[in-house]
Amino acid sequence: MTGFGQGIAVRFVEEGARVVLISRSACDDTLKQIAAIEGFTGAPEDVALWVKGDISDEASCNAVAAASAARFGPHIDVLINNAALFVFKSVEDATGALHEGAGRPQLTYSPVFPLQPRTGIAVPA
After folding, report:
1. What is the mean pLDDT of residues 68-74?
2. What residues contact 125, with CB distance under 8 A and at least 6 apart?
3. Which of 25, 44, 61, 119 is most buried per CB count within 10 Å?
């Protein structure tokens, strides 16, 4: 994990969040950056879970959501997907078939959506 995703993850941890890092390759550098946060004590693994995953694979996205819930509890406040392409459909209707040929990034939302609280707050696209 590099670039925007890495920066976002580190910043969230700086602000006190726990994060799940999804990538096809190890996130060792991101975990090192988390460990180097000023005032951070403990192990990066206390606040960051790396799960090897591919957001174009529905089974992988389901496994990531399950790992997140098992580690941090069945509640996800924020999902940031900064990879692949975007299909303009409701996240509630996201399926693998819907995203075929578009990088299938919305597959990350399907298993996570039930874990997110319904707040009534709309976030503009």
Report:
1. 88
2. 88
3. 61
